[in-house]
Amino acid sequence: DTAVSQTPKYLVTQMGNDKSIKCEQNLGHDTMYWYKQDSKKFLKIMFSYNNKELIINETVPNRFSPKSPDKAHLNLHINSLELGDSAVYFCASSRGRAGGYTFGSGTRLTVV
Amino acid sequence: AQKITQTQPGMFVQEKEAVTLDCTYDTSDPSYGLFWYKQPSSGEMIFLIYQGSYDQQNATEGRYSLNFQKARKSANLVISASQLGDSAMYFCAMREANTGTASKLTFGTGTRLQVTL
Question: pLDDT tens across B63-103, in order?
């Protein structure tokens, strides 16, 4: 029933580990995004995919690798986690360039 | 340069009063959209209201209205009859049309609204 669902909701891990966050949308949207919200609540786009094609990559470190197996899914894999990666990661989707955006409930990543 | 500016880090309003949250934006794109989102303490991003740059009338959604002043590049959110449940962070965001196939949202820094009894 959930429009944009992210898993897990919380993720606590040690520095140096590799982790993935999954996102799925059932709205039939063709564009999906990853946003990062830092400790000061600032939201910034990381990646955008349109029909499985990478469209936006906002100078995110190579340790972050998005993957879109189909247009309903956009996963985020993070290698060699660092303390500074601690944040809330939001997945979102939209229909084309003019549609509204629907956000997932966020994944709170804590690197210790 | 900041594309979206929210100058009020925090605001207080009494229950049942109206409150205006400020947002100014900067773009040279003639076609753009402005959004407001609410983020309660539970963390989810809730869409409130949308205004297109070519829309003739100010957008309204229930108790939310957007005071769109194009020449001044401002898109202030007005919440009427505030309720305790309106206490949250509020984000203004802009989408510019000419950013390729996928148009990203650029967010302001947010305003934390506290509704008091």
Answer: 999 999 999 999 999 999 999 999 999 999 999 876 565 67
User: Across the interface, do A103 and B105 touch by the CB < 8 Å criterion?
Assistant: no
Contact (CB<8Å) A56/B44: no
**Residues A31, B100: C-beta atoms closer than 8 Å:** no
Q: Where are the alpha helices (DSSP H) in chain A?
A: none
Q: Give the residue from A106, A100, A4 showing the smallest Cα distance to B36.
A: A100
The C-alpha atoms of residue B41 and residue A99 are separated, in whole angstroms, by 26
Query: B46, B3, B91, B34: which is closest to A92 by C-alpha?
Result: B46
User: Which position has the token pair 């040690």?
Assistant: A14
Q: Which residue of B has its CA nearest to A34?
A: B104
Query: Lowest-confidence range among A4-13, A92-101, B25-34, B67-76?
Result: A92-101
Rounded Cα gap, residues B108 and B9, in angstroms: 11
Mutate to test the interface with A, among B104, B106, B107, B113 (most CBs of A within 10 A): B104
Check B44 against A105: CB less than 8 A apart. yes
Other Cβ atoms less than 10 A from the Cβ of B18: the count is 12
Helix boundaries (H) for A59-98: none
CB A49 within 8 A of CB A68: yes
